[in-house]
Specification:
The complex is a heterotrimer of chains A (298), B (346) and C (439).
Chain A (H helix, E strand, L loop, with lengths): L1 H7 L15 H29 L3 H4 L13 H9 L2 H32 L5 H10 L5 H19 L7 H26 L2 H9 L4 H12 L1 H17 L2 H6 L7 H4 L11 H30 L6
Chain B lengths: L2 H11 L3 H6 L27 H28 L21 H7 L4 H34 L7 H7 L2 H4 L2 H11 L6 H9 L15 H25 L4 H9 L4 H12 L1 H16 L3 H7 L10 H11 L3 H34 L1
Helix pairs in contact in B: 1-16, 4-16, 5-10, 5-13, 8-14, 10-13, 13-16, 15-16
Chain C lengths: L1 H24 L14 E7 L5 H19 L2 E7 L1 H14 L5 E5 L3 H7 L7 H6 L8 H5 L11 E6 L1 E6 H6 L9 H11 L5 E4 L5 H14 L16 H15 L15 H7 L3 E7 L2 H6 L7 E4 L16 E2 L1 E7 L6 H11 L2 H11 L6 H4 L7 H13 E2 L7 H20 L6 H15 L3
Helix pairs in contact in C: 9-10, 9-17, 10-17, 10-18, 17-18
The chains are: A mainly alpha (298), B mainly alpha (346), C alpha/beta (439).
Chain lengths: 298, 346, 439
């Protein structure tokens, strides 16, 4: 046992974080598994990068690992084929606003469920859970009609506007966000908010001064989830947007027209729009992982 | 709705990692409050009755507006003969009673038969996809539990599929799965020579596996994230104690790691199941409006029966049946898993 | 529990109220439109050019001209094909749509049935210069035969045979095939050594329909009876579908890989010299963007059994094209009609069809020398003499899905090396027809 441990030690960081002694079989299987998984994850990414650097004739031809001729033309053309920048801004606004609203609303709801005992609590949580089962197809058309009618009755333009889309997307991520946050808030010691109450904060003050800061990592996790939900949605966006509010998820389809499919531009555009998201995501993932573990704090 | 289900709903929904610490102890509402600070019987401001409802109001209103109301309208639609002759003026659409449902569940007739087929395909697909996502996610999380060189990099890398826009990711896979020009056949057929002739992936029976691959590629990082978090909640002293008892690495994983993940699993598997079952984006981007029979997922099938053919009555009826099925599965699932959990904690 | 029920009842009542108001949604402004906002128009254009930005560049100057003439500002939105039908659908359901829009001409009868589009009766036609200005076959694909058209032809297209001159030369073929027997004989000469004679889009439902429709005509089959009932299983229909699929299964002049094509891969194969022929509508711009020189390819009419295209059994193309329709709910009915008149005027037709490489459905505009180049001449002749409209029935899109999928499945079988027999073709078509009968 100890020899294995000795063998394992120099590989790891200076201090092993766990008392587990890793046997050789474990190390090898880990190496093999992680290598294969990395390959699986990166394969499409590689294809995207290499295809985005080929001229159209090459892309639509036989696949080759190494492109014969490199060109950055697709990266220039993408902006001319469709108004990519506009779609990108739309997506950012829609996903960003949906995320902020979803998180704020989920924070309130989760706080109520976590800190109060009240009638109808179970009905609420079960109802929220059940909305995750609804097939989008079933309520797409009714929702659209409702938006139109609300618009006719009140003058608030919901359909075709970013507002309608934001409203829709935030409710998509709301249920899971609420469940997650209830968990986080439960793990924040109650003594803390009591202390805040004694200090003269109201319940809302206690929420924002104590509970929210203590659960920041969890909130980041929920925010990332909400953002990704809104960022990639295709079905509702295809019906509820128009030219000026079209999001990327739909806009990227503009590279595939009646007679031509600009593969290289699709890939290039996908990469360009993904880079900021992936970068932001990677910056946040430190919090994200820490956030999801917050429950461990006792 | 039975009491058990409701209770589980509540604890189950809090099944983020926090539940690991807490979930088991969370009492059914009637049981006396345990160790932790009492919730209700505290004199002071927290007792204001209206506040919790006020806090829930925005979430409730929004869910009502965007999910529940449209669903009720959808259910009403399923009892109407809503074809293109009537979509312009719904009021004029004649009530058709249960006709739409009869057409949908008449499994001897082509429409019902196709729906049943699609349903079975979806079940098989969902089981495999959720199973694989869970397996890969869990395995990767366990392997990345220990510190080693490059761990941070891998952890970041594994989140990339989750961060790419769905359309971009799926269209790229579709590109790779092309028979004559795609990467997959280039490797399998041209370079490794595993097959006699280049197989098709986007039509015919193999399309099922193509769809499964894409779905797993896209779905496992989420399982990985949740699992990784769950793992870090397991108190270290449990491992230390086991190590002192002479348990090896593999045994520790089996005896401590996996049982501790139970409550994370409960919600993760449920959520993955619901998302995968209802997934529309992946098959739609991969196959377009007519999926091959082997990969004819129910969401696409319903889309075809309503949007493509403009027959919203039948499409709605099919959706309602799907909803009932999912409700039943979720109910049973929560009932079983919560019973297991209760007995595990006795 | 009781509260839960009360909440459910409340929700149900509220939603019923909303549904009720939704019912009114479509018909509040019903009738024949109004002139409430005479100074603006919304126009949904389909994506005709190489991409959406190109479309805007082509259309914007023309819209500016229109504004100058009439003082009406046209708000343009170019909608990709992947979205257009769904957008029209939701517009129809809600009554919130554009004033004027482009539709695929095969959708005419479906949309006509919904009652969302302004019928083009004599009075309305008179306002845009009369029915006689348009090519007859194009008018035939603007709605059910016994009703006033639901739209006006805007751009027309037809199928032609595009062939690679060099590959023909290498195979010792001196002229493009005019009959299917010649096609197969020539095809066998070409299909060797990794090269193939003909390209197909086996997984593209619409394309499948277009091909088997023309072949069906040649076998004396219409896919619908006189009174609009589906009739997919007649001997002629079965023979037509089998003939098309057999070019891959039996004659082996279509590469098996084409069975999964749905994104115009057959065009890039053609541009790369991998296949020698494609049956396509107005493909010139695509060849150019794929890097193929204009001298490398030629155009001929699509083959027919007899060798001489004409009507009836000598039909060799569907009438392809785009129609322009006015949304019944428009708040600027006069302006809408003016706009249609403008877009179908001789001058605009010349400009627009030149830009898009299509044939003007307006007779007078066809006279222009620009439409005399060989490709357009073939398309124009086909359209005038030997093209027939796809069935103008309300459930046309169901037909496309059902039969298109049947052909797709048969191609998949053929590609997998399974035999395609009259029996297996018939079985697929029976299944397709049964799926139709739910309505």
């Amino acid at each position: 046992m100890s020899s294995v441990r000795l063998a394992a030690r120099p590989r790891g960081a200076a201090k092993p974080r766990s008392p587990m002694a890793a046997p050789r079989s474990f190390l090898w299987s880990r190496r093999i598994f992680l290598t294969l998984l990395t390959g699986f994850v990166l394969l499409p990414v590689f294809v995207m990068v290499s295809s985005s650097l080929k001229p159209l004739e090459d892309v639509s031809g036989k696949f080759r690992w190494m492109p014969s001729g490199l060109t950055i033309r697709p990266y220039i053309d993408i902006w001319k084929t469709v108004p990519l920048a506009e779609y990108f801004v739309n997506s950012l606004i829609v996903a960003g606003a949906a995320t902020v609203c979803s998180v704020v609303i989920a924070v309130f709801a989760a706080y109520a469920v976590s800190r109060y005992q009240f009638r109808g609590k179970r009905v609420f949580t079960v109802t929220v859970l059940s909305t995750q089962m609804f097939p989008g197809i079933l309520f797409l058309l009714p929702l659209f009609l409702m938006y139109v009618n609300i618009g006719n009755a009140t003058g608030i333009a919901l359909f075709g506007s970013r507002g309608g889309l934001i409203l829709t997307y935030l409710t998509f991520s709301l249920p899971f966000s609420i469940w997650m946050l209830i968990g986080y808030f439960d793990s924040v010691p109650r003594d803390l908010d009591e202390a805040a109450l004694v200090d003269g904060c109201g319940p809302i003050g206690a929420l924002f001064r104590v509970v929210v800061p203590a659960a920041i990592p969890g909130i980041v996790a929920v925010a990332v989830y909400a953002f990704m939900t809104a960022w990639g949605e295709v079905l509702f966006a295809s019906v509820m947007t128009n030219e000026s509010t079209r999001t990327l998820a739909i806009g990227l389809q503009g590279y595939s027209t009646q007679n031509d499919v600009y593969w290289n531009q699709i890939m290039a555009a996908s990469l360009v729009v993904s880079i900021p998201v992936v970068a932001g995501f990677l910056l946040l993932q430190r919090y994200l992982v820490a956030g999801l573990t917050a429950g461990a704090v006792k | 709705m039975s009491d058990t289900t409701v209770t589980t709903g509540t604890t189950g929904t809090t099944g983020t990692p926090a539940t690991i610490v807490q979930g088991g102890k969370e009492p059914p509402a009637t049981a006396p409050e345990t160790g932790r600070a009492p919730r209700l019987r505290r004199p002071g401001r927290l007792r204001r009755i209206g506040l919790p409802y006020l806090l829930l109001l925005p979430a409730l209103l929004l869910e009502l507006l965007v999910h529940l109301l449209p669903i009720v309208i959808g259910i009403v639609m399923s009892f109407k003969e809503l074809t293109q002759f009537f979509i312009r003026d719904w009021g004029a659409a004649p009530w058709s009673g249960l006709d739409n449902y009869k057409v949908s569940v008449d499994f001897d007739a082509p429409v019902g038969e196709a729906l049943l087929h699609s349903f079975l395909v979806t079940c098989a697909f969902t089981l495999l996809s959720v199973g694989l996502c869970w397996l890969i996610g869990t395995t990767a999380a366990i392997y990345l539990q220990e510190t080693f060189k490059g761990r941070g990099l891998l952890r970041a890398l594994f989140l990339v599929p989750y961060a790419l826009p769905v359309y971009a990711a799926v269209i790229t896979w579709g590109f790779m799965f092309q028979r004559d020009n795609g990467l997959i056949n280039h490797v399998l057929h041209d370079q490794l020579g595993l097959t006699d002739s280049a197989p098709f992936w986007l039509i015919g029976d193999n399309s099922f596996f193509a769809l499964l691959t894409v779905s797993v590629w896209k779905g496992w990082p989420f399982a990985f994230l949740i699992m990784m978090a769950g793992l870090q909640n397991i108190p270290r002293d449990m491992y230390e104690a086991a190590a002192l008892d002479g348990a090896g690495m593999w045994q520790q994983i089996r005896r401590i790691t996996l049982p501790s993940l139970r409550s994370v699993n409960q919600v993760l598997v449920l959520v993955l199941f619901l998302w995968t079952f209802n997934d529309f984006n992946t098959p739609y981007v991969l196959f377009g409006r007519s999926a091959p029979e082997a990969a004819d997922l129910i969401s696409i099938h319903i889309y075809q029966s309503s949007f493509v053919t403009w027959n919203f009555g039948t499409g709605s009826a099919m959706s309602v049946l799907l909803l009932l099925f999912l409700l039943a599965v979720t109910g049973v699932y929560l009932w079983i898993t919560s019973r297991e959990r209760k007995s595990a904690h006795v | 529990m009781r509260r839960f029920r009360a909440a459910a009842v409340g929700a149900a009542t509220l939603s019923l109220a909303l549904t009720a108001s939704a019912c009114g949604g479509g018909s509040t402004t019903g009738g024949e439109g109004s002139n409430d906002s005479p100074k603006t128009l919304t126009y949904w254009a389909s994506n005709q050019g190489p991409n959406i930005e190109a479309d805007k560049k082509i259309l914007k100057p023309e819209l500016a001209k229109f504004e100058k003439q009439t003082g009406i500002k046209v708000k343009l939105e170019v909608i990709p094909w992947s979205e257009l039908l769904n957008r029209i659908l939701t517009a129809t359901t809600s009554g919130q749509g554009p004033d004027v829009l482009n539709i695929g001409n095969t959708w005419s009868a479906s949309l006509q049935a919904s009652g969302a589009l302004l019928p083009w009766d004599e009075k309305n036609f008179a306002k845009i210069g009369g029915k006689d200005r348009f090519v007859e076959s194009a008018l035939g694909s603007a709605g059910a035969p016994d009703k006033d058209p639901a739209a006006v032809p805007l751009y027309s297209m037809a199928y032609a045979l595009y062939y690679n001159k060099k590959m023909f030369e290498e195979a010792g073929i001196d002229k493009p095939p005019a009959t299917w027997d010649e096609m197969i004989a020539d095809g066998k000469k070409i299909s060797k050594g990794g090269k193939w004679a003909l390209g197909a889009e086996g997984a593209n439902l619409s394309n499948n329909i277009h091909q088997v429709f023309a072949l069906g005509k040649q076998h004396g089959a219409d896919f619908f009876t006189e009174d609009g009932k589906p009739d997919f299983t007649s001997d002629g229909a079965v023979a037509a579908v089998k003939q098309y699929v057999d070019m891959m299964a039996k004659d082996k002049i279509i590469a098996p890989g084409n069975a999964e094509y749905a994104q115009n891969q057959s065009l890039s194969d053609f541009s790369k010299g991998k296949t020698a022929m494609v049956l396509w509508q107005a493909a010139a711009t695509t060849f150019k963007s794929q890097g193929m020189s204009e001298d490398d390819w030629g155009v001929a009419p699509v083959p027919v059994q007899s060798g001489a295209p004409g009507q009836g059994k000598a039909t060799n193309s569907m009438v392809a094209g785009i129609n322009m329709a006015v949304f019944k709910n428009t708040k600027n009915i006069d302006g809408s009609l003016k706009f249609v008149k403008f877009m179908t005027s001789d001058a605009e037709q010349k400009i627009l069809c030149k830009s898009y490489g299509s044939v003007p459905p307006v007779k007078a505009a066809q006279e222009d020398a620009a439409f005399d180049r060989p490709e357009l001449k073939v398309l124009r002749d086909t359209l005038a003499k030997s093209a027939a409209p796809l069935p103008q029935v309300p459930n046309e899109s169901q037909f496309e899905t059902a039969v298109g999928t049947a052909v797709k499945n048969l191609f998949a079988n053929a590609a997998a090396g399974r035999e395609v027999t009259t029996g297996s073709v018939k079985a697929e078509l029976v299944k397709a027809q049964q799926q139709m009968s739910e309505q």
